[in-house]
């Protein structure tokens, strides 16, 4: 495969576009515009176009851009007229570099190009960054990045944003994401990945943890530590977690329907949610709504939430356990859990914080060993998290740990990947 050509459209790939664009910028003597186009292909109902439909649209768009780029321009300091440039970046984004004086005409052509013959619909989001010859060291990649940032502002409603006109002091990338969040939920851009948990000695899978992911159309897969604070900030934690839990419960239900014996998948509860009676109610009803045993949906609550001065957390947990849920204390040992209090807490499993595996010292081994014996005497399961190496796995087995979770065994898997794994092991 030729890495200089985008295999679908035949346009220059990211590498060759950026190389040619750098050359052009170096010699340019007129203002240029970098037009960054995120094609975003949807049916009106919000569904993705079929693959063939999408391909047709992308090929058509490539043709339009090729003809716009092909018009000779007097852009360079040599007297020879040369063509503009277009290409397709590895993320699937289309880019066009042309003189700014032709920018408006090009935008009209792109927006109104005859794409209506397809059944799907075409709602590109477009970002534009300008190159001024006063900056002789400008790099094409930086220009693309700026146009991409502007584009991300408009990614959800389609439309055009000019980088120079955005007040970037006011709008940080977080702000952009914050504005996108409500629609991202509506557009089902959130997904759930599943990280398996194993019995260490036998390598048998015993369960999994549901971990939220935001599959952002431009920025790619975002991790929860990054976006959950934003979800919180825009007061959407309830909707967000309900979406994740519904996703997980319906995923389990589908597996059972298809004859696969499911293993429990634990879900995470944010500390803030223990104060929201509606969330408690929602959780209690969840297994019944999907015809599942509550045993299939253990609930993880981070250690810090167990020591809140008001006892909302304890109250909620007691209710959940009464209903048949297993309750796990997540990130155990990351804060200042009072060991003496552990005996009186309504908890079934401790998820041992990954910091315990960071260093291997005699002191740390002694600590791991005493946590295990304390767990045994209190009748608690312990699942160490963050096992990344064979040595760590062997140490835990030597000490007598039975279960574990971590990249050494498996990274979080997409719903499709986890399902394949379950099809192999759960029939
Ligand atoms: P957590 O519940 O303690 O989840 C474990 C985190 O450790 C996950 O990060 C997982 O990908 C990561 N991890 C697993 N094995 C390893 C390893 O071997 N090495 C390292 N370095 N990391 C490992 P992730 O998915 O980024 O989640 C971060 C946190 O975000 C979670 O920590 C949980 O507190 C929160 N979270 C995730 N999904 C949800 C959700 O749906 N709702 C709520 N409320 N919180 C969530
Ligand atoms: Mg967790
Ligand atoms: Mg954890």
Describe, in plain words, how this protein is organized in 3D.
The protein is α/β, with parallel strands linked by helices and 427 residues long. It folds into 2 domains: 14-166, Alpha-Beta Plaits; 171-424, TIM Barrel. 40% of the residues lie in helices and 20% in strands. The protein is built from 13 helices and 18 strands. The chain has helices spanning 14-27, 51-70, 103-112, 140-154, 173-186, 224-233, 237-257, 277-290, 312-323, 339-342, 362-377, 390-399, 415-425; strands at residues 32-38, 41-42, 72-73, 82-83, 85-88, 94-99, 121-122, 125-131, 159-162, 190-199, 205-216, 220-222, 265-269, 299-302, 327-332, 349-352, 381-384, 403-404. Helix 9 (312-323) links the parallel strand 14 (299-302) and strand 15. One magnesium ion binds at residues 209, 268, 300, 330.
Please state roughly what percent of the residues sit in beta strands, choosing from under 5%, 5-15%, 15-25%, 25-35%, 35-45% or over 45%.
15-25%
Mean pLDDT score = 86
Number of helices: 13
Question: Count the strands?
Answer: 18
Integer tally of domains: 2
**Highest-level CATH class of the largest domain:** Alpha Beta
Content-based structural category: alpha/beta
User: How much helix is in the residues?
Assistant: 40-55%
Shape: elongated
Unreliable segments of 5+ consecutive residues: 42-47
- Cα radius of gyration in angstroms: 27 Å
Bound molecules: ligand C2E, magnesium ion
CATH superfamily of the largest domain: EAL domain
């Amino acid at each position: 495969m030729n890495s200089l050509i985008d295999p679908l459209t035949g346009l220059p790939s990211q590498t060759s576009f950026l190389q040619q664009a750098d050359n052009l910028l170096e010699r340019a003597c007129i203002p240029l515009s970098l037009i960054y186009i995120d094609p975003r292909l949807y049916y009106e109902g919000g569904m993705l176009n079929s693959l063939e439909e999408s391909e047709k649209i992308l090929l058509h768009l490539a043709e339009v851009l090729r003809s716009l780029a092909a018009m000779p321009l007097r852009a360079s300091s040599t007297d020879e007229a040369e063509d503009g440039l277009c290409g397709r970046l590895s993320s699937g984004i289309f880019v066009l570099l042309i003189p700014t004086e032709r920018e408006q005409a090009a935008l009209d052509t792109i927006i109104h190009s005859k794409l209506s013959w397809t059944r799907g619909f075409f709602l590109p989001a477009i970002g534009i960054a300008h190159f001024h010859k006063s900056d002789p060291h400008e790099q094409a990649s930086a220009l693309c990045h700026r146009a991409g940032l502007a584009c991300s502002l408009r990614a959800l409603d389609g439309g055009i944003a000019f980088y120079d006109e955005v007040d970037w002091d006011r709008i940080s990338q977080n702000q952009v994401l914050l504005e996108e969040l409500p629609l991202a939920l509506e557009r089902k851009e959130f997904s759930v990945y599943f990280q398996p948990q194993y019995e260490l000695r036998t390598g048998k899978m015993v369960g999994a943890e549901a971990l939220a992911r935001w599959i952002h159309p431009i920025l790619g897969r975002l991790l929860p530590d990054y976006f959950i604070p934003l979800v919180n900030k825009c007061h959407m934690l309830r909707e967000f977690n309900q979406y994740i839990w519904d996703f997980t419960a319906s995923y389990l239900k589908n597996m059972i329907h298809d004859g696969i014996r499911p293993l429990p998948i634990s879900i995470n509860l944010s500390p803030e949610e223990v104060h929201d009676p509606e969330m408690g109610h929602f959780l209690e009803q969840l297994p019944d709504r999907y015809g599942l045993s509550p045993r299939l949906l253990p609930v993880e609550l981070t250690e810090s939430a167990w020591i809140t001065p008001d006892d909302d957390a304890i109250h909620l947990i007691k209710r959940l356990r009464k209903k048949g849920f297993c309750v796990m204390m997540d990130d155990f040992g990351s804060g200042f859990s009072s060991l003496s209090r552990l005996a009186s807490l309504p908890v079934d499993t401790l998820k041992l914080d990954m910091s315990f595996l960071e260093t291997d010292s005699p002191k740390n081994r002694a600590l791991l060993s005493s946590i295990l014996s304390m767990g045994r005497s209190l009748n608690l399961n312990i699942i160490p998290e963050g096992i990344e190496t064979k040595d760590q796995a062997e140490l835990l087995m030597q000490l007598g740990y039975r279960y574990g979770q971590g990249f050494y065994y498996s990274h979080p898997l997409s719903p499709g990947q986890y399902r394949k794994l379950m099809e192999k092991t759960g029939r």
